[in-house]
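Memo to structure team: turn this sequence into structure tokens by end of day. - J.P.
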Amino acid sequence: MESAAAADTADQDAEQHTALTPPAAFVRFAVCGGGVGVAAGGVLLPLAAWLPFAVANALVTVGSTLLATELHARFSFRAARTGWRCHLQSGLTVVVSYLFTTAALTALHSADPAAGALLRQAVYLAASGLAGIGRFLVLRLLVFSGDGRRTEPEPAAPVRRLPGPRPDPRDASAADRTGLDAAA
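Reply from structure team:
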């Protein structure tokens, strides 16, 4: 009975850590990231009523990035574990995304200083979408590249000897025939 329960637990663990197909992982990535973004937006304004906006924005950005990284690791990419290294790498993708969207809006302002709100919003959303796809690819291919399965090598199978007489290690002529070193 215990072995059946252990087998069920092992099957559940294997199922939990099985890699998702790229489209399924991307949908989960978008839902998790979007959900965290909406939640962060809901926290930002009330927090900004108590703190300077820049401080509130920094706190919400750090907190939402930590939360999103955990969610992406567990649900989007089904990684076996996360740590500070994964959080740092994910945070760096957020910084790159910020720089990318800022560059897109700066380029728009240089090209058309009188651009309307709708055009600015369209450029921002397009840049954010491209940055999100880039983040997904970096997180999937580099940060959470393992599929959650064991990463250490499997133990070697035991060596099976063929039936027959075994050479005597004290016999030098037998060692020569088998390639064994007589001194060993």
